[in-house]
Write a structure and sequence with these properties.
The protein is mainly alpha-helical. The protein is built from 6 helices and 2 strands. Helix 4 crosses helix 5. The model has no long low-confidence stretch (mean pLDDT about 90).
Length: about 130
Amino acid sequence: MMCIAKKSSSEENLELSKIAEEYDIPKHFLSKILQQLVKGKLLNSTKGPSGGYKLTRHPDEITLIEIVDIIDGLDVFYECGIGFKKCDDEDPCPFHDDYKKVRNKVKDLFESKTLGELSRVAGESDQVLHIL
């Protein structure tokens, strides 16, 4: 998504093979991820000679939580930190209160940060981030 966001100002679509090569991701795996993002309406996919992927919205309008939700779901923000089946405020595990605080801070961060912000920071530091 960051690779596509960096190119979002151009009118051209970004090819799967270019993304896979730039981030050293197997094409088959990347294709499945990108199709999930198309199905989740964060990307448009175009076939043909000038085909590829493009964001459906400006990167500043896409929060990181939207990406996480489409790829992995939001269970990590609600499940027990040590894997207990039954763990909530009424019946907490020994780790519950501490984990809940951290989990909620991470969730708040992902809800407030946008793909645009992340792309700009990565671009300024010239780092390649592997978020997948």
